[in-house]
Q: What sequence folds into this?
């Protein structure tokens, strides 16, 4: 029997039972749609996070922190000092080093009090390292040699709700509060500062670089106000962002501090994030694949029912000279048609579903921190666009087809083995 | 004359649950090319079993069946399928595919044999004309009378130029007027086109339409007679 005749025959059998075939196809559609939707959202999220990271985290910088690094770790008692920057600046390939003192404090204005991260930085060096993000929103200049009580605030400090209801503006006089827990008895420290600039929106989050929820004060003021010479991290700017430079400099810095510090590069963070996402993707795809297996069992079930109903028909075909493997092929082709249709519709549905989910979440104000770019800014939001890679697209179609055919193997084999006499006698 | 079918000491034992049933107990039969043979017997006499064995739909317990000189018992499944393409089956219950039109049903054996679309459409149309259904080609079985359905089945049986037609109670499900027309058609095919026919029936009158009749009883051929033309 010619392939196109086999196909036509299989198709005519499917057409005969439209509702049943439709429901079976729906099973495949749901499985494939789940896979495609989950993967395209996850991949979109990954890309969004990676691009945010690259923006808020210059690729030619290293972050030096004491002990276990970004993730923390056991306290060895070692601390980085603000003037360690002088030592680090001497290292080859380093163009600048900047210490950051970081505390959680409060900012008080006529509109109330808000909790915020306060960072003591050298404005001039910070401007140089994060030249694309440490910029005032109205284009105003951030002073390189600020007054001691100068403040730069992030966009979310100035406009916390993203709707134009201002908490503070450039030029405001505000009060900075900090609970000094090292003093006995505990003491609330405070001073009056001037907001000299509001940063333009950075979006998302950042490691080391400017963020929308932070307040920046001069490093000398931070040393005095927080009463410390220790710093939480040192940002190191390199001559280039090539891998060799990053690695050799990181090693030099680690050795310099007797391996008491962790040196993190943006590339390393990106790698960690992408490996985390690979695991998440695998996990989600695995869950979705289970629904496809259920669909496969549905196909098997339907094929066995079909086999029983068509026993006599198979007997006729065999009496007319059809070979066993042709009977097998007809049944497999039926499953393949259902699988392929289901997979194609499933990919479309999954894609639409991903778009819908992203839209719903961004409309609701970022349930998991999502928003569409260009819309009103939402606190901590990052823009996600679902991404459907050709690998996912073709993989999903192939997987749908494969599952359908594999589950049809047994019924198809049974059909092919039917004895013509018995099949013809079947009522 | 060429021998189309030869059965030698053919035996078939079925297991009915745990009880063995001897359906055939040693049948010898020869059918020559161009013959119109009827096999007459009451139900349970083994005539349908004989038909299934001759049609290569089933395998004998003992003895041999030669179709066109080939020992059927030596053939594998694929070869049996190929052999069946040289045999035209006509069943009591027509056994047409309900979702196909008359034309498509007649095309089916040719499609199975790998004949191209145009050629088989042309031949199917010719055959339907031969059986007198030129104007009913695009009707589905449910839209056809029993007699018409059986004509479609006969046309289908003729598609691959079979060595012989095997008919199992071909008029068993048709009213007497149509049954008469069917048997006239069968006789005409035999007389004018030289088609060899083996017909199984329990109907004495129908059996007597053939050139020769063998009588079966309890799994044996008990009587053989030539009929008047």
A:
């Amino acid at each position: 029997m010619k392939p196109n005749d086999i196909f036509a025959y299989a198709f005519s059998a499917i057409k005969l039972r439209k509702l049943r075939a439709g429901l079976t196809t729906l099973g495949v559609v749901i499985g494939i749609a789940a896979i495609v939707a989950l993967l395209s959202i996850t991949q979109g999220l990954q890309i969004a996070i990676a691009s945010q990271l690259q923006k808020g985290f210059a690729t030619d910088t290293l972050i030096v922190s004491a002990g276990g690094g970004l993730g923390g770790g056991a306290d060895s008692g070692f601390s980085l000092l603000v003037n360690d920057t002088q030592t680090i600046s001497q290292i080859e390939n380093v163009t600048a080093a900047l210490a950051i003192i970081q505390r959680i404090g409060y900012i008080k204005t006529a509109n109330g009090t808000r909790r915020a991260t306060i960072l003591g930085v050298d404005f001039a060096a910070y401007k140089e390292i994060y030249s694309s993000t440490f910029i005032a929103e109205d284009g105003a200049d951030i002073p390189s040699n600020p007054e001691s009580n100068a403040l730069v605030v992030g966009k979310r400090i100035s406009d916390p709700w993203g709707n134009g209801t201002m908490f503070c503006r450039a030029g405001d006089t505000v009060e900075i509060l900090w609970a000094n827990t090292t003093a006995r008895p505990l003491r609330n420290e405070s001073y009056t500062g001037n907001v000299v600039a509001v940063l333009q929106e950075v979006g998302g989050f950042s490691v080391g670089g400017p963020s929308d929820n932070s307040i920046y004060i001069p490093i000398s003021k931070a040393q005095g106000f927080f009463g410390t010479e220790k710093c939480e991290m040192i940002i190191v700017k390199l001559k280039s962002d090539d891998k060799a430079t990053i690695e050799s400099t990181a090693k030099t810095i680690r050795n310099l501090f007797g391996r008491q510090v962790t040196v993190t590069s943006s590339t390393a963070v990106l790698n960690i994030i992408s490996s985390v996402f690979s695991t998440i993707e695998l996990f989600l795809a695995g869950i979705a694949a289970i629904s496809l297996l259920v669909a496969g069992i549905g196909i098997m079930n339907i094929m066995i029912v079909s086999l029983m109903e068509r026993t006599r028909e198979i007997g006729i075909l065999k009496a007319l000279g059809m070979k066993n493997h042709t009977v097998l092929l007809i049944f497999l082709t039926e499953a393949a048609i259902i699988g392929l249709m289901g997979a194609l519709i499933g990919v479309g549905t999954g894609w639409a579903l991903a778009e819908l989910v992203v839209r719903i979440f961004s409309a609701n104000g970022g349930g998991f921190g999502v928003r569409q770019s260009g819309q009103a800014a939402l606190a901590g939001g990052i823009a996600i666009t679902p991404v459907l890679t050709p690998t996912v697209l073709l993989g999903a179609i192939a997987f749908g087809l494969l599952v359908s055919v594999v589950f049809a193997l047994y019924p198809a084999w049974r059909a092919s083995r039917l004895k013509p006499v018995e099949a013809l006698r079947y009522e | 004359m060429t021998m189309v079918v030869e059965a030698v000491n053919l035996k078939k034992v079925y297991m009915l649950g745990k009880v063995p049933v001897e359906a055939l107990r040693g049948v010898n039969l020869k059918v020559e090319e161009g013959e119109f043979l009827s096999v007459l017997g009451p139900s349970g006499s083994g005539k349908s079993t004989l038909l299934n064995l001759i049609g290569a739909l089933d395998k004998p317990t003992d003895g041999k069946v030669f179709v066109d000189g080939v020992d059927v018992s030596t053939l594998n499944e694929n070869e049996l399928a190929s052999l069946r393409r040289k045999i035209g089956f006509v069943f009591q219950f027509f056994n047409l595919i309900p979702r196909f039109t008359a034309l498509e049903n007649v095309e089916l054996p040719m499609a199975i044999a790998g004949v191209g679309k145009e050629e088989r459409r042309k031949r199917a149309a010719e055959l339907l004309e031969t059986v007198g259904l030129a104007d009913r080609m695009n009707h589905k079985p449910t839209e056809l009378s029993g007699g018409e359905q059986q004509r479609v089945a006969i046309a289908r049986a003729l598609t691959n130029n079979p060595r012989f037609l095997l008919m199992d109670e071909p008029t068993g499900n048709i009213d007497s007027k149509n049954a008469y027309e069917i048997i006239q058609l069968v006789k005409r095919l035999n007389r004018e086109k030289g088609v060899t026919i083996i017909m199984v029936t329990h109907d004495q009158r129908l059996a007597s339409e053939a050139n020769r009749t063998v009588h079966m009883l309890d799994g044996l051929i008990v009587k053989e007679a030539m009929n008047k033309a």
User: Anything to note?
Assistant: Chain B is about 35% helix and 30% strand.
